[in-house]
Amino acid sequence: MRKKYAKMVLTNHDGYAPCPSFERRISMDHTLRIAICEDLPADRELLLRRIRESGVPAKCETHESGEAFLKTFKPGLYHLVYLDVYMDKLTGMQTAAAIREQDEAVLLAFTTTSRDHAFEANKYRSLLYIEKPVTQEMVSHTLTLAASLRETKRSQVLTISAEKKRLDIWHDDIIYAEVLGQRCILHLWDRGGLDVSTNFNIDDLEAMLPTPRFLRTHRSYIVNLDMVKRSNGTDFIMKDGGIAYITQRDYRRIMRLYDEWLFRQAREERL
Question: Can you list the domains of the chain with their CATH numbers?
Answer without folding.
Answer: 10-27+155-270 (2.40.50.1020), 32-153 (3.40.50.2300)
